[in-house]
Amino acid sequence: MAPSSSSPSSSSPAAGAPAGASPVAAEAAPAPARPASPPATGAGALLVPVRGVPRSALLDTFSDARGAGRRHDAIDIIAPAGTPVLAVADGHVEKLFDSERGGLTIYQFDPARRFAYYYGHLQAYAPGLAEGQRLRRGQVIGTVGSTGNASPGAPHLHFAIFRLGPERNWWEGEPLNPFPFLRDGTAPR
Ligand SMILES: [Zn+2]
Fold it and tell me: Where is the composition biased (Low complexity) (predicted)?
């Protein structure tokens, strides 16, 4: 990714001042000290969707093979069964789906309905979670498990991002690699 290439504004180039303090909700994450971490995760930055997992612990498994001719198209985040799964961003629950491969899954849409965030192999949904429900970034939406085709001995969250088509169908979209967004604390646009 190239650094910002936006044309500099001619008016008052406030030297080095980070563009205004965000008035939006404070970061809920307890952010441990990470001296060399990338700066500036904006309010829209994706959270790591498993509580307690640092960005630095993530592995890029997007291009791994999964069965005959299939690509993983997702990231697996290893964690003990029962670990809280967090909404990576604001949005709403578009679909709760129990599938053969994914097990208990959640499809979340972002507020602009441009992206779907997919959480798979859940042990359970958060109590009361329902389709259409609004979600706040960081909200607990379920727990890590090994439902579907995940190995019972290796519970993990399968997390994917899809760029939605014009139909906004939860079951179809262009897979985007979640890894760079989760590692760097950015969001797809
Ligand atoms: Zn997976």
Answer: 1-31
